[in-house]
Amino acid sequence: MHAGKRRHTIVEYFEGSAQGFTVLELLVIIVVISILVAIALPLYLGQSRGADKRVAQYNLKIGEKCVDALWYDKLIAQNPKDGIDSYRDWDPPELLRAGGSFETSGWVPVGARYMSEREKRIKWADLEVTGSSPPVASADLNGLSLATAEYCFRINAVYSVGEQIAAGPDIWNDWSILPGKIGVIIDKYYEGGWKDNTNNFYITLVTLERGGTAHFLTLRQGAIYDSGSFDLKDGQDPGDSKEPQPPAPPTPPAPEPPVTPPAPEPPVTPPAPEPPVTPPAPEPPAPPQPVQPEPVIASSVRIEPETLNKSSNGSFTVFIELPAGYNPNDLVPGSLTCSGAFATVVNVTGSNELNVKFEREDLLNVETGDAVVITITGVFSDGTPFVGHDTIQVIDKSK
Q1: What is the mean pLDDT of residues 362-387?
Q2: Residue 362: exposed, middle, or buried by beta-carbon count in 10 A (0-12, 13-18, 19+)?
Q3: Are the C-beta atoms of residues 126 and 187 closer than 8 Å to each other?
Q4: For 80, which DSSP code?
Q5: What is the pLDDT of residue 214?
Q6: Cα separation of 87 and 219, whole Å?
Q7: Which residue has the higher pLDDT, 189 or 2?
Q8: Nearest-angstrom CA–CA distance, 177 and 24
Q9: E strand or H helix at 46, and its extent?
Q10: Closest alpha carbon to 112 in 15, 186, 200
């Protein structure tokens, strides 16, 4: 009896539900779904934009390490024939020897094609600064903004493994192809305005988010010169996006006024004698511009332990030897950094030697691998920058 009543109740429940939802119930469901979408969509878009930014910054860091390894392991060891430490290779790969500057000058510039041959896992884009008018930018690199058609970036070509995979006018301003690649500028560098990159002292790397924010890093003779981000704005004039306006209706011609005979000309008065010309006062000489000091490159850098476990705690030690004539006591202790980590202990052990301790947990953006380039930077008390590198094995046992 009890089972029969239970079965009858279940049947009645399903028979009642067959009538469907009421209008009020549907409105409640729609409102709940709208609230959930309004909460979830901004979170998803924010996470997507944040991930896009991190990818662009990470790619820029990868490009810096590739150029750093090239500079210290290859270029600076070649003893360039012109005596200039620059981003040129006097002994390039065979693929890059045919034609161009190698046949005329005996060297190859470190550009997008060159880097694609040296680092084959990355696609590199050849960027050029074009035009002749002043750029829309402030003297501060972090405020750089290129927004005119007369002065902008242009993508000349894209390279992979030393071979050109895209080129021509169709890609000059197609910025959708730049995210995920590393752009290289070697014709100019930015210092309060675009200047010619004489002797290839500078190389600038650029990565781009899909939203249009570009991140750049300029290296000068093996040391970081400046870095930051700016709004690319597609390199176009914002006026180009305005909708065309319909032409104004023609205006009927005004009736011609009656012709009046010309009045008699007044008698000519001889001109007054001109006053004597006073020569302008000489302009004061322009104040001398400050000269950017050359970075001091360490004679040797050794990191212990030689295998660094990112997931472990504790410190590691960097042994540094300065070039002759430089006193380690002149280095500002608080300026010494190692891949984002600041020095915790600094000990001077000789006339030009010191060892510095850093905490593993403070390291930033250090990849794992058998040959990872670790950069040490700092500054002397007189403002002269300092830089050094070591290549070690980095592991992560937590993975």
Answers
A1: 84
A2: middle
A3: no
A4: -
A5: 87
A6: 10
A7: 189
A8: 50
A9: helix 23-70
A10: 186
Q: What is residue 255's predicted lDDT score, i.e. its pLDDT?
A: 56
Report the C-alpha gap between 317 and 333 in whole angstroms: 14
User: Which residue is associated with the tokens 């670790």?
Assistant: 374
> E strand or H helix at 88, and its extent?
strand 88-89
Judge whether 88 and 111 are in contact, CB under 8 Å. Answer: no
Residues 6+ apart with CB under 8 A from 9: none
Distances in whole angstroms, Cα of residue 251 to Cα of each of 29, 244, 265: 60, 20, 36
The pLDDT, as a whole number, for residue 229 is 85
The predicted model gives 237-247 an average pLDDT of 38
Written as six digits, the tokens of 118 are: 């040296």
Angstrom distance (rounded) from CA 61 to CA 82: 30
CA distances from 338 to 224, 229, 296, 313, 362 (A): 14, 22, 16, 16, 9
What ranges make up the beta strands (E) of 279-350? 296-297, 300-304, 307-309, 315-321, 337-338, 341-342, 345-348
How many CB atoms neighbour CB 375 within 10 A?
19
Q: Is the dihedral of CA 301, 119, 310, 61 positive or negative?
A: positive
As a whole number of angstroms, the distance between CA 352 and CA 323 comes to: 7
Residue 363 above 80 pLDDT?
Answer: yes
For residues 313 and 344, the answer to whether their CB atoms sit within 8 Å is: no
Q: What domains are defined for the chain?
A: 67-238 (no CATH), 296-395 (2.60.40.10)
Residue 129: pLDDT over 50: yes
Q: Please state whether the peptide bond connecting residue 258 to the residue before it is cis, i.e. omega within 30 degrees of 0.
A: no
> In 10 A of CB 147, how many CB atoms?
19
Q: What are phi and psi of 385, to 5 degrees?
A: -75, 155
Look at the alpha carbons of 93, 96, 98, 104 in this order and tell me if their dihedral is positive or negative. Answer: negative
Mean pLDDT confidence for 54-74: 83
181 is written with which tokens?
């690649």
